[in-house]
Amino acid sequence: MNNPPANFHFHDLQPAAADFRADVIAGLSRARKSLSPKFFYDNRGSQLFDAITRVPEYYPTRTEIGLLQRHGPEMAERLGNDGLLFELGSGSDIKIRVLLNALRPRIYTPIDISHAHLRQAAGAIAEDHPQLEVHAICADYSRPLDLPAALKREQRAAFFPGSSIGNFDPVQARDLLRRIAALLDPGGSLLVGVDLKKDPALLHAAYNDRAGVTAEFNLNLLTRINRELDADFDLAAFRHQAFYNETLGRVEMHLVAATAQRVHINGHSFSFQAGESLHTENSYKFSVEEFQTLAAAAGLASVGVWQDDDALFSIHCLRPAQRPGGHGK
Ligand code: AVJ
User: Fold this and answer.
1) Could you give the 3-state DSSP secondary structure of residue 272?
2) 194, 251, 283, 284: which to mutate for ligand 1, most atoms within 8 A of CB?
3) Residue 187: pLDDT band by 50, 70, 90 thresholds?
4) Which of 18, 85, 179, 307 can pair with 105 through a Cys bridge, CB separation 3.0 to 4.6 Å?
């Protein structure tokens, strides 16, 4: 953006590059190598994720947008807040545009780890909505967050789209929902997109698209490590793998070494055996009841749930449950 509009504010609380290096070295040092999926989203990774949302097999994004278009006014009414709207992991901006039109908050605060992507998307929204204060925060929302003081006084609601909650294992997901609950007012609510359990063949197709965009997205993590951490992954030696783990109710993505590999990162050296995998993502799937149980464990009560006719995707409206002795509405 050449000329940020006056209603646009950018708060950079981005994690330091040192954190990325330390996390990658720790992840590759484990007996079962793994990295957090939050590292997918460098500029190229954010672009590739956008491309995934357009492949025919990847149903979540278009299904969630359909739900927002169809039920947006009712969702806004349930959210019931015209103060401040947080968005966690502001991905594609179509979703938030639909919700902003229905809810009409005074302040919009997207929180995203991807700096350039956030600046661009949030800046465009500020331009198109001159009445709306946009306070974009570049941060890792999976960690405790110190809110800019200007945002502390408003009535707050939150939107957590895309089933990104599925990236966290159950205990982490509960803790994250608790932290989001703490961001809300006693009367504030949360709208969260949650991918539903379904025929594993549909899940398999969604994470193994024919055009190979998901594979490229997965492999881009190695490109990013090579570039930012001066590492020497041989990209041709790793292949994308994604499957539904029925026991754990999650899609898993891995990068599997075709042959034995040795990789150097910043003075460290890591070996892969032939067939050894680097686990790059979990994407948990939930029944409506399973998600409500998880939310309840985080102190959030269900005040509405919407799903499409094919039961592919759900959106839940949750509200901090009244604490005994508390003053919730
Ligand atoms: C944005 C985390 C919800 O798990 O479906 C898409 C990311 N990974 N294809 C998902 C993703 C592979 C996506 N989330």
Assistant:
1) strand
2) 283
3) confident
4) 85
Chain-centroid distance, C-alpha 148: 21
Bigger pLDDT: 325 or 143? 143
Nearest ligand 1 atom to the CA of 162 is 3
User: How many angstroms does the Cα of residue 38 sit away from the middle of ligand 1?
Assistant: 10
DSSP 7: T
The percent of residues above 90 in pLDDT, for the chain, comes to 80
Token readout for 27 is 């992840």
CA separation for the pair 67, 75 (Å, rounded): 10
Contact indicator for 309, 283 with CB cutoff of 8 Å: no
Ligand 1 contacts CB of residue 61 (under 6 A): no
* Contact status, residue 13 vs residue 137, Cβ threshold 8 Å: yes
Q: What is the CA radius of gyration of the chain?
A: 20
Query: CA geometry: angle at 74 spanning 183 and 189, to 5°?
Result: 10
27-53 average pLDDT score:
95
CA distances to 224, 235, 276 from 280, rounded to whole Å, are: 13, 15, 13
Nearest to 195 by CA among 249, 255, 253: 249
Q: Which residues contact 217 (CB under 8 A, 6 or more apart)?
A: 40, 45, 48, 49, 51, 52
Q: How far apart are CA 322 and CA 329, in angstroms?
A: 7
Ligand 1 binding pocket includes 45 (Cβ within 6 Å): no
- Report the atom number in ligand 1 closest to the C-alpha of 251: 4
pLDDT in tens, 118-164: 999 999 999 999 999 999 999 988 888 888 887 877 888 999 999 99
Q: Which atom of ligand 1 is nearest to the CA of 206?
A: 9
Question: Any idea what DSSP says for residue 199?
Answer: -
What average pLDDT does the chain have?
92
